[in-house]
Amino acid sequence: EAGVAQSPRYKIIEKRQSVAFWCNPISGHATLYWYQQILGQGPKLLIQFQNNGVVDDSQLPKDRFSAERLKGVDSTLKIQPAKLEDSAVYLCASSLDTGLLDLAKNIQYFGAGTRLSVL
Amino acid sequence: GENVEQHPSTLSVQEGDSAVIKCTYSDSASNYFPWYKQELGKGPQLIIDIRSNVGEKKDQRIAVTLNKTAKHFSLHITETQPEDSAVYFCAASVRPSARQLTFGSGTQLTVLP
Fold first, then answer.
1. Angstrom distances, CA of residue A74 to CA of A71, A113, B22, B45
2. Would the CB atoms of B43 and A91 count as touching at under 8 Å?
3. Rama region for B106: left / alpha / beta (φ>0; ψ in -120 to 50; rest)
4. Which of B32, B44, B97 sits opposite A110 (nearest CB)?
5. Which pLDDT value is given to residue B96?
6. Cα(B52)–Cα(A97) distance, rounded to whole angstroms?
7. What pLDDT, in 10s, does the model give residues B3-60?
8. CA of B41 to nearest chain A CA: how many angstroms apart?
């Protein structure tokens, strides 16, 4: 079974530039998550999708960050304009999420992430 | 919201020794506690999890214990091997469907040969 795919693996940009990250979840997984992981910290949830709808984006800085999952499969996360403090690894995760209380089917599987450096 | 604290931030052990990582959580409604292992350049990978109605769970050399009264849970790795070297994260969720994970800050475990 293929895992969560993310691209690019690395991105270096200057502040005030824009950048986009792409995620392809595990086939059949309904729920998709974007996390921000700053160096030395644990992942912090930015946004959660259920199919193509947003479940929670309360921690997404909406003045500069946006995300979409138009067809309920792939997703893109965009930052415009980027700030120095946005330097981090951006992780995508997916889960089968049947909606039932079955923890085994709601395990989150993570991609390798995109490391963003803002100069 | 939920707050998860993790200690220690770094841990070095000799190969064959045991390693223990501890986490505390703030929200008494939290009911699902996974542990993730993250190797360099890779995403976190689930290694073990426990629900609030269980006090202990084992999987070969790995075990997790949960004390709901004290609101803390721990990861125990026995007979450590060099390939156990990685960053370990604890997490907590208040949702029964294990969504909305709040992660600890991580522990860098180094197993010395």
1. 7, 15, 36, 21
2. yes
3. left
4. B44
5. 55
6. 20
7. 999 999 999 999 999 999 999 999 998 888 999 999 998 999 999 999 888 889 999 9
8. 7
